[in-house]
Amino acid sequence: MPLEYTLTKNAPAPLPGIYSQAVKAGGFLYTSGSVGMRTDGQMVPGTVQDRTRQVLENLRAVVQASGYTLGDAVKATCYLSNLERDFEAFNEVWKDVMPNPKPARTCIGVARLPAGGTDVEIELVLYKD
């Protein structure tokens, strides 16, 4: 099965030669982790909720460019740099943006995320026939 790679200008550009925005393998789409960065490369200021909303908008753009919707998500892995402080605020945006039924999800508290100035990162696995 040939792999298909996604590149859309409607989400922050991936670092060349480092990663792809998403890779399709059969009916599955695997996204790279997305952070609260705008397409101009600037991190969204404000709260974890502001950045979570941007993350999900970035992911929406990537999955749409791949022919999927957020409703096709089957698994999400979410990273928060301060899980104890930000989990409830993160969940408020998650519940508002992600369609039902919600995908399986894991939230992990991490000491630091690689993109400077962010406190949230999300990656998705999506499936459709």
TrEMBL record:
**What's an example GO cellular component term for this entry?**
mitochondrion
Superkingdom, according to UniProt?
Eukaryota
Q: What is the lineage of its organism?
A: Eukaryota, Fungi, Dikarya, Basidiomycota, Agaricomycotina
Q: Which organism is it from?
A: Cutaneotrichosporon spelunceum
Name used for this protein in its record: Uncharacterized protein
InterPro entries the record matches: RidA (IPR006056), RutC-like_sf (IPR035959), YjgF/YER057c/UK114 (IPR006175)
Family as reported in the entry's similarity comment? Belongs to the RutC family.
Coiled coil stretches, renumbered: none
This entry's Gene Ontology molecular function terms read: deaminase activity
The record's annotation in SUPFAM superfamilies points to: YjgF-like
